[in-house]
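Quick start: what a row looks like.
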Amino acid sequence: MVVNISDAKTNLSKLIDMVYHGEKVVIAKNNLPIADLVIHKPTGKRKLGLLKGKMMVPDDIFEESKEINEMFYGKDS
């Protein structure tokens, strides 16, 4: 199915549903094909733990800093 840009704007939800169900949709400008509307396919699996061993989290990460609290709340708090 070839759809001009103005029609694609108007019927985007319908076109996405058609692609979801396996139909090929081509978006055209002045009847010249410009883009294919296709199902998203991830380029690869995400790899977890890329920074393992490359950074150090200090033990006191959740401790409050007096200096930072003074910057936000002033010295009176």
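That is the whole record. The chain has a mean pLDDT of 91. Helices lie at 5-10, 12-20, 66-73.
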